[in-house]
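Re-run with default settings, no changes from the original entry. Doing this only to confirm the output is reproducible before filing.
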Amino acid sequence: MRPPTVAHSQPWVKNITMGIWVAKPRLEADEVVRWEKFANRQQSEYRATGGKLYLTDRRLLFVPNRFDGVTGGDRWSVSSANVREIGVEGRKPTIPVAGNAAKLRRRLRITTTTGLELFVINKVNEAVSALKSALG
C-alpha cells in the first residue's frame, strides 16, 4: 500500500508523498535510496530536529518529521561528492537543557565541503560503517 499524496494549499509546497511520521524524500528522476535511518539533526546550538537521514546514489539528505517540519525544522542535503569524512562525535559535558541533551550521546559526524553536520542516531557505529561503505 502506498502512502497518500497530500495536496497542500501553500504554493511553495508541491504534492508531497507522506509517510506516517516523515515525508518521503524529494528525489530526482531515477535517484535511488540506498540507506535510511531515523535521526535527530543538530540544526543549531539549541535546536535538534527529528526526522530521517537518507543516502541515495547521489547524495545524503535529511527530512524532518511532520511536527518539526512545520515548526522550523529544515531539510538538509549534500552531494556525495562533497562529503569529506564520516565519523563519530564523542560525548561532551553539558547541562541537558534547551537542545543540549544531544551532546551527552555519541553522534554521527558528517564533514562536508561546507561544514559539519551532527546527527543523533541509534547504533551510530553501524551507521558510520554503512555510510563509509556505501560512499566508498
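Residues 1 and 19 are 11 Å apart (CA to CA). The beta strands are 5-6, 16-17, 33-44, 47-56, 59-64, 76-79, 83-89, 107-112, 115-120.
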